[in-house]
Amino acid sequence: MGLNNIGIEEEAVAELFRDYADGKIKLSGRPKTLFERIKNFFTSVFKATKDAGFNDVEDIFENVRSGEIGRRERAKTPLDNLKDLQAQARSDVDQQAQAFSLKTFYPKLPFAPEGVRAHNLPHQLLVEG
Q: Is 85 exposed, middle or buried (0-12, 13-18, 19+ CB in 10 A)?
């Protein structure tokens, strides 16, 4: 085949995985955990395509070529739902804060004593409240 050392290692790992998936060899520890995760990933991909109505790979490519896949309505992801909840929570908090502020803020403005003109008032006129 003319593979270099890295290519030979990759092929060896691929053959090892094939033998594991076919039940020809038993593994334990980290290799087994890694291969189980790989196997679960591919199982999930195949199940998802089947659930979406695709029977084989050609169905997927045909729907991509025809634009059918691009026209599908997108399902909301958990991240979309989280963003919606965050926006609603911010809105609720803003409304509560505004209602509280309007309810509890009664400024007490100091008035100048009778007979005092504005140009004689101190520069630091503060609002009490």
A: exposed
